[in-house]
Amino acid sequence: MSELSLPESLAIFVEQEVAEGGYESAERYIRHLISVEHKRRAKERLEALIVEGLESGESEEATPEWWADGARDSKVPLGA
Question: Do 62 and 68 meet the contact criterion of CB atoms below 8 Å apart?
């Protein structure tokens, strides 16, 4: 990845965050921000999928027999 140029006001802000947050460098601080955003988006996606599943209709209990029947009906073996 290439260098990141920032306006002076943002560069000062980043320098302050590095100093106050105990980061080794501005690069570490930026990595942290990206990681936090990545995790936040993953959590949003997971929550949306959970809501979608809850709203998808009546559920079945996933017993060992249910899994065995699903494995038989599936074209892709479980664990593949």
Answer: no
